[in-house]
Amino acid sequence: METTNFCKETAAFNKTALNTSFDALNTLSGQAVVATDLLLAAVPSFPEEGKKVVTTCIKENQKALDNLKKNLVNGLDLDFTAASAPVKSLEALESFYNDAFSQAAVIKNETKALVDAATGKLPKEAKTIVNFWNDSFNFGFDSFQNYVNNNFALAKKVATDIFAVAPAVQAKAAK
Question: DSSP characters for 1-47?
Answer without folding.
Answer: --HHHHHHHHHHHHHHHHHHHHHHHHHHHHHHHHHHHHHHHH-TTS-
